């Protein structure tokens, strides 16, 4: 992705700032020389080779055409533009054989494919994080109904696996018992009187693990929260979860 300074220069150049454009062109002269030399398979000199001038013109075009909001580096985009313009020029001058030009074209196709694949990966990654953020916002709202702060989950999570497994058993017991579930949703409290003997846990243990149990129950009963189960470790093969 563009650095803040480079992004600012491209934006300014696109708005007509000649100084910003000159800075970009000057800064990328070595970049243009390297790309053009690689395409031509030989060293090129600014004072002798027209190919470099073609590359610099192509870079100027790339500045105008580049989308500053794109999740792709400017140099990646510019490299493709420079290569394509240079190949068109070489074809018109008939300086290279068709075999060489086809090799150049294959290089560009490979570069574009890699760039497109990377862009798609970034897009999917962004969508994943956006969806996860929305899901966590929804989960936070559900927890708030039970006076639970989502930012405190790591603090209320039991340190020992045996304790986590026991509290998961309590959460699963509530999920599977309609009466207990209705009680929890109606009053916002654990049905300790019936839950304690059902899962063989003391009142003290259940009260101490109240928030953790409820946080688990919400994930177990709400289909929208099902994706959060992938972030958890279930202690049984029927359903395994741990926050």
TrEMBL record:
Sigma factors are initiation factors that promote the attachment of RNA polymerase to specific initiation sites and are then released. GO terms for biological process: DNA-templated transcription initiation. It comes from the Bacteria. One of its GO terms (molecular function) is sigma factor activity. Keywords: Cytoplasm, DNA-binding, Sigma factor, Stress response, Transcription, Transcription regulation. The keyword Membrane does not apply. It is found in: Cytoplasm. Pfam families: Sigma70_r2. Its main location: cytoplasm. Interacts with RsgI. Negatively regulated by the anti-sigma-I factor RsgI. InterPro entries: RNA_pol_sigma-70_dom, RNA_pol_sigma-I, RNA_pol_sigma70_r2, RNA_pol_sigma_r2. A motif (Polymerase core binding) lies at residues 50-63. It comes from Desulfotruncus arcticus DSM 17038. This is RNA polymerase sigma factor SigI. Belongs to the sigma-70 factor family. SigI subfamily. Residues 24-95 form the RNA polymerase sigma-70 region domain. Residues 192-211 bind DNA. One of its GO terms (cellular component) is cytoplasm.
């Amino acid at each position: 992705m563009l650095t803040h300074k480079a992004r600012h220069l491209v934006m300014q150049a696109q708005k007509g700032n000649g100084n910003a454009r000159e800075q970009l062109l000057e800064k990328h002269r070595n970049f243009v020389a390297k790309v053009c030399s690689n395409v031509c398979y030989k060293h090129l000199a600014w004072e002798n080779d027209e190919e470099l001038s073609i590359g610099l013109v192509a870079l100027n075009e790339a500045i105008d055409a580049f989308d500053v909001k794109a999740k792709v580096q400017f140099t990646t985009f510019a490299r493709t533009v420079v290569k394509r313009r240079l190949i068109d020029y070489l074809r018109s001058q008939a300086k290279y054989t068709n075999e060489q030009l086809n090799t150049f074209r294959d290089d560009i196709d490979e570069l574009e494919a890699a760039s497109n694949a990377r862009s798609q990966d970034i897009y999917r990654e962004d969508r994943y994080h956006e969806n996860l953020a929305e899901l966590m916002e929804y989960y936070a709202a559900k927890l708030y109904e039970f006076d639970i702060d989502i930012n405190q989950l790591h603090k209320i999570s039991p340190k020992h696996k045996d304790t986590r497994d026991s509290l998961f058993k309590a959460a699963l017991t509530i999920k599977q018992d309609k009466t207990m579930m209705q009680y929890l949703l109606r009053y916002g409290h654990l049905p300790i009187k019936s839950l304690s003997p059902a899962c063989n846990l003391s009142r003290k243990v259940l009260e101490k693990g109240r928030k953790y149990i409820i946080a688990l129950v919400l994930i177990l009963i709400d289909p929208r929260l099902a994706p959060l189960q992938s972030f958890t470790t279930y202690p049984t093969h029927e359903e395994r979860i741990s926050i």
